[in-house]
Amino acid sequence: MKNPISYNKRREFSNKLAHFLFATAAFVSIFVLVILLSDLIARGSRFINWEFFMNFPSRFASKSGILPAMLGSLWLVVLTALISIPLSISAAVYLEEYAMENRITRFIKINISNLAGVPSIVYGILGLSFFVRTLGLGRSILSGALTMSLLIMPIMIVATQEAIRMIPASLREGSYALGASKWKTVKGIVLPSALPGILTGVILAISRALGESAPLLLVGAFSFVSTLPKGIMDSFIVMPIQIYTWMSKPSADFRDLTAAAIMILMALLLTLNMTAIIIRNKFQQTYE
């Protein structure tokens, strides 16, 4: 028979050891992050000024700016969101609320989940062969947005499906009992209640699109542009590719300029994620 006192002591020791290991891992992670951020700020802060935001890239680091890359990223993200969000939510609603549960539906769901883990370079090859060459869209913002939509749609669909599955069946049954149709129940009960989870998946997917570079290199994003994009068929450059271009230059000033661009990109990503958290919390308070 086990000694209760000895067992309690071992359990208490195990709890303290686990707490120490987890706290150490968290501290080391935060410490490394602080060091990296400090290095970025120390190297890139001298380039953060109004001219940096308004100038075009130049062969001189002191005259280089990030305006075309910022506008290109904005065009790409907005167009990608307009394409992918309606399609992803519609597909998830159909699969969860309307599609019959059979082998075909299960096969589609499994493959959508698998597509969420496919390397981004594969989507770049697909975009190059189909959108750029077969459809003849060329090296344009539209080709990049369509390719990025394929990349992030599986993530949005899976996140929307999980959010819809979390809605209690009693809410649907209550709506049906009051005489509501299937569509009214989905529109008035299911989607509003699942909105926090849907928004989380959407923002995370858009954040991934903002930070991707490999698919866009294949689709045809330029490493230098001399004009600003004015339409979806124009050539473009995005911030990750601009960062890669500057980092490949031998000059130490361009590496510091890269640090400044990374700071801007991180600020945009953090702002995007903070917005998602605020919106999600607002809707959670509304519908809980």
Descriptive account of the structure:
With 288 residues, this protein is an all-alpha fold. The protein folds into two domains: 4-47; 52-287, Orthogonal Bundle (MetI-like fold). Helices cover 77% and strands 0% of the residues. It is built from eleven helices and no strands. The protein has helices at 4-44, 50-54, 67-98, 103-115, 120-134, 141-165, 169-177, 182-211, 214-219, 239-247, 252-287. The longest helix has 41 residues, at 4-44. The N and C termini lie far apart (48 Å). The model has no long low-confidence stretch (mean pLDDT 85). GO terms for molecular function: phosphate transmembrane transporter activity. Residues 70-276 form the ABC transmembrane type-1 domain. Pfam families: BPD_transp_1. The chain crosses the membrane at residues 20-42, 74-95, 115-135, 141-159, 189-210, 257-279. Its main location: membrane.
A few lines on this structure:
It is built from 11 helices and no strands. With 288 residues, the chain is an all-alpha fold. The protein starts with a helix and ends with a helix.
